[in-house]
Write a structure and sequence with these properties.
With 217 residues, the protein is mainly α. It folds into 2 domains: 65 residues, no CATH class; 115 residues, no CATH class. The chain is built from 9 helices and no strands. Helix 3 crosses helix 4 and helix 6 runs parallel beside helix 9. The termini are far apart.
Length: 217
């Protein structure tokens, strides 16, 4: 056996060992594991599995395997402006048409995510799974808006409680929207839990859907 072949075998073996160690650390939920990576999304999935951390970690590990290598496409300035204008318009129409505004925000988030390189909005579950890998801190706001947009229309929808739920859903979803339109390539939502102004000079969008409340900065 040649020296070159022996060196190649040693390198491959070393790579396999390192990969196994990293996988084991991830399963243990160590400082670089799934719990650290997913944050609140980790707790949500554990609760969804009735406290079964093994099942939850298996689901999250599968998400990372499917979507971890996804590279987000940076948006052009004109795209950012167009999406920001659509969000602002939806907010302004909330007082008169809350359900229509929430539906527009749901569609807008799906469109922006697809533009950044995530699965298309028609594949909602897959899109959310991918977003949870790269924007774990904020993805649940998207879920909440989507549920509000898909909820059956009823008389109760028009009451104050229903309107407040939709308003809160839009506020929570805005964090994901800000992340998607402002961050540079290579950054991830889990590192940007508090989004203010982006590096492109776009201010954090004000909330004006409820005129009885002061605008947020």
């Amino acid at each position: 056996m040649s020296t070159g072949l022996i060196i190649a075998i040693v390198i491959v073996a070393a790579v396999v060992v390192v990969a196994a160690v990293l996988a084991a650390r991830s399963r243990r939920g160590g400082p670089h594991g799934l719990k650290h990576r997913f944050g609140p999304e980790y707790e949500r999935v554990v609760a969804q599995h009735g406290g079964d951390t093994k099942a939850a970690e298996q689901e999250l590990a599968e998400r990372v395997q499917r979507h971890g290598d996804l590279h987000e496409r940076p948006l052009e300035p004109a795209e950012r402006e167009r999406y920001a204008a659509r969000w602002t318009t939806a907010q302004e129409h909330f007082v008169d048409s809350p359900r229509e505004s929430v539906t527009e925000i749901d569609l807008l988030l799906a469109e922006v995510a697809a533009a950044r390189g995530f699965p298309a909005g028609a594949e909602y579950d897959d899109q959310v799974a991918a977003l949870s890998v790269h924007h774990a801190e904020h993805v649940d706001g998207y879920r909440r808006v989507h549920r509000a947009a898909q909820a059956p229309v009823s008389g109760a929808e028009q009451n104050q409680a229903g309107t407040e739920e939709m308003r809160t859903a839009m506020i929570e979803a805005r964090s994901l929207f800000d992340d998607l339109i402002t961050q540079s390539a290579g950054e991830t939502g889990r590192h940007r839990a508090g989004v203010g102004a982006d590096t492109g000079g776009h201010p954090h969008l004000p909330w004006s859907a409820d005129r009885s409340r002061p605008k947020e900065s």
